[in-house]
C-alpha cells in the first residue's frame, strides 16, 4: 500500500473517531470562518466594549436588547423596536435590516447566504 494512502486513511480515521474529534472544534471552525465574514462589518463596527465606531460595538451583541449600547446615537426606529439580538433576529438583520426595522440608519449589508450567516453568528457568539 502506498504511504500516501496510509496517511489519508489514518487521518480519516482520526477525524471520525468520537474520542479524538471534539464537537467544540466545529464551533471554533465556524467562529474562525465568521471572523472572515465579519470583515464586511469592520468598516463601521468595533469589537471593543469601550469604543463605538460609525456603528455600535458588537462585542456581546448576541442576546443583547437592540439599541442599548452606551454612547451610541441609535435611530428612534431601532431604539423603539423592542428587538433582542437572538440568532433569528440577527439572521433577519444581516439579510435585510431595512425590512426588519424600517427607518433604521444602518446601510443595507445583505448577508443572505445562510452558511455565511451561520459563520457570522458563531463568531459573534464566541465574543459573549
Automatic annotation (TrEMBL):
<feature type="domain" description="Cytochrome c">
    <location>
        <begin position="29"/>
        <end position="128"/>
    </location>
</feature>
<keyword id="KW-0732">Signal</keyword>
<dbReference type="InterPro" id="IPR009056">
    <property type="entry name" value="Cyt_c-like_dom"/>
</dbReference>
<protein>
    <submittedName>
        <fullName>Cytochrome c</fullName>
    </submittedName>
</protein>
<keyword id="KW-0813">Transport</keyword>
<keyword id="KW-0349">Heme</keyword>
<keyword id="KW-0249">Electron transport</keyword>
<feature type="signal peptide">
    <location>
        <begin position="1"/>
        <end position="22"/>
    </location>
</feature>
<dbReference type="GO" id="GO:0009055">
    <property type="term" value="F:electron transfer activity"/>
</dbReference>
<dbReference type="InterPro" id="IPR036909">
    <property type="entry name" value="Cyt_c-like_dom_sf"/>
</dbReference>
<keyword id="KW-0408">Iron</keyword>
<dbReference type="GO" id="GO:0020037">
    <property type="term" value="F:heme binding"/>
</dbReference>
<dbReference type="Pfam" id="PF00034">
    <property type="entry name" value="Cytochrom_C"/>
</dbReference>
<dbReference type="InterPro" id="IPR002327">
    <property type="entry name" value="Cyt_c_1A/1B"/>
</dbReference>
<dbReference type="GO" id="GO:0046872">
    <property type="term" value="F:metal ion binding"/>
</dbReference>
<keyword id="KW-0479">Metal-binding</keyword>
Amino acid at each position: 500500500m502506498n504511504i500516501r494512502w496510509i496517511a489519508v486513511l489514518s487521518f480519516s480515521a482520526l477525524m471520525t473517531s468520537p474520542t479524538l474529534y471534539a464537537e467544540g472544534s466545529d464551533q471554533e471552525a465556524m467562529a474562525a470562518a465568521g471572523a472572515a465574514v465579519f470583515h464586511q462589518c469592520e468598516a463601521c463596527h468595533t469589537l471593543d466594549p469601550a469604543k463605538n465606531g460609525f456603528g455600535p460595538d458588537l462585542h456581546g451583541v448576541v442576546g443583547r436588547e437592540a439599541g442599548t449600547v452606551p454612547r451610541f446615537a441609535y435611530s428612534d426606529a431601532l431604539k423603539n423596536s423592542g428587538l433582542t439580538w437572538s440568532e433569528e433576529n440577527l439572521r433577519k438583520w444581516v439579510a435585510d435590516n431595512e425590512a426588519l426595522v424600517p427607518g433604521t440608519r444602518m446601510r443595507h449589508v445583505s448577508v443572505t447566504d445562510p452558511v455565511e450567516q451561520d459563520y457570522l453568528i458563531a463568531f459573534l457568539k464566541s465574543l459573549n
